[in-house]
């Protein structure tokens, strides 16, 4: 049995950060130290617990079986330590995060849980809004960080991964050939909508805005009600809808990139951002789910 009172906090934190980021180099960067120092701390921890916790090859860093077992206890150990330290100070740090509604937030519970485990003294404020409003708040210093689709006029930010879009509607949505495509949109300034309408114009397909709602959630409700077609990330298309590009001869849409923007530079904030980016990448839903759902639903219709 391990005597937890003798564990070194920095060594345990190094182990957890390596586990989260799956890289000695990124862990060192997140903790503001060197790769060599991280390796020494891990080695001392492994000697103390009597097990190899991390297996490292030239191409891969992963937890050993003992490391996987120890990870939850290590997180609890760090959380208890941080709570004890936090109680000595009345000041709590705040971290405001904006996530664009078109990006969606299936990862949000994981992001919040990971940030809280990393720094229990952190008060996390989350704002879900349209990308343009979030960017305005970010540029004015109201929000510390935002996760959005990359805008054409911005090249800054850390890339979290690619995302792919499709045209979605309910399986029983009816569109007659030659009639304007009935679109649902959240805002005339929506970058995704502008890309979609340009694609329709290029393809010579007429379209009209049947539903203009306040925010992406209202658009999702309109599409789910069978009122219109709209464009969504394949990861977060409304439940009960299918991809209808081939069915109605709609043009393919270019992919985009999900990016994390932040101007925070202090070591603790940088570490939080590293954890945030890692959790987002790790828990993204596979982009192919919507394609599979479309195929399954359409097969069901054809068999009916």
Number of alpha- plus pi-helical segments: 11
End-to-end CA span:
61 Å
| Poorly predicted parts | 285-304
Q: Which CATH-level-2 architecture of the largest domain?
A: 3-Layer(aba) Sandwich
How would you describe this structure to a colleague?
By secondary structure, this protein is an alpha/beta fold. It has 11 helices and 12 strands. The strands form 4 sheets. A 5-stranded mixed sheet has the order 4-3-5-12-6. It has a 3-stranded antiparallel sheet with strand order 10-7-11, sandwiched between helices. A two-stranded antiparallel sheet has the order 1-2. Helix 1 crosses helix 2 and helix 2 (24-31) runs antiparallel to helix 10 (267-282). The longest helix has 22 residues, at 65-86. The model is unreliable at 285-304 (pLDDT under 50). Keywords: DNA-binding, Transcription, Transcription regulation. This is LysR family transcriptional regulator. Belongs to the LysR transcriptional regulatory family.
Topology:
Blueprint (H helix, E strand, L loop, with lengths): L8 H13 L2 H8 L3 H15 L4 E3 L4 E3 L1 H22 L6 E8 L7 H11 L3 E8 L1 H9 L5 E5 L8 E6 L1 E5 L11 E5 L5 H12 L4 E6 L3 H9 L5 E4 L8 E2 L1 H4 L7 E7 L4 H16 L6 H15 L1
Helix pairs in contact: 1-2, 1-3, 1-4, 2-3, 2-10, 5-10
